[in-house]
Amino acid sequence: MELLVHPQAICKVLSANDTGETGGHQAGILVPKDEDILSFFPQLGKETKNPRCVLRFEDLSGAIWNFTYIYYNNKFYKGTRNEFRLTSMTGFIKSNNLKAGDKIIFLRLDDGRLLIKHQRTNKLENDTDNVLRLGTSWKVVNI
DNA sequence: AGCCATGCACCG
DNA sequence: CGGTGCATGGCT
């Protein structure tokens, strides 16, 4: 019997840097080192420097987006980086006019296919943010 | 830990 | 040359 359970969907509130509003060109979003979040993505270790893989996402209109999931781990190779990023998202972010505060939601279907959707900022919800105070801007969503 | 920022390479 | 992405460093 298989008892291993993985989250089927996660979401992230975009930062200004994620959307490119800060003028940066890092072309993607940061993925916090949270077990529940990382388990959604392929496991990338520190055996090789800056390992990556391309993930194929489908949006609600049926369009296909290929994002690159990278583990910048040069901290283990005489550098200082130790973080995960999902890059090549400029097209998706621009075509949907996503801004800081908006959410991106990733879902995995039973057949392994990946879906991506987004949600505009809800200001009322923002107001309660201080009270809820989620540890990271990512959260596991059960569907 | 997470977000901000930037030099360089590549490509249309 | 401008947009995009890679890789990396800095700041909070």
CATH architecture: Beta Barrel
Strand percent estimate: 25-35%
List the uncertain runs.
124-135
Overall morphology: globular
Number of domains: 1
What is the CATH T-level topology? At1g16640 B3 domain
Category by helix and strand content: alpha+beta
Number of separate helices: 5
Explain this structure to me?
- With 143 residues, the protein is an alpha+beta fold.
- It has one domain: DNA-binding pseudobarrel domain (At1g16640 B3 domain, Beta Barrel).
- It is built from five helices and eight strands.
- The longest helix has 6 residues.
- It is globular, with a radius of gyration of 15 Å.
- The structure holds a DNA duplex (12 and 12 nucleotides).
Could you give the topology of this structure?
Elements: E1 9-13, H1 16-19, E2 28-31, H2 35-38, E3 52-58, E4 64-72, E5 83-87, H3 90-95, E6 103-108, E7 114-119, H4 123-127, H5 129-132, E8 138-141
Parallel strand pairs: 3-7
Antiparallel strand pairs: 1-6, 1-8, 2-5, 3-4, 4-5, 6-7
The protein binds a DNA duplex (12 and 12 nucleotides) through residues 15-18, 22-28, 30, 32-33, 50, 68, 70, 72, 74, 79-83, 87-88, 90-91, 136-137.
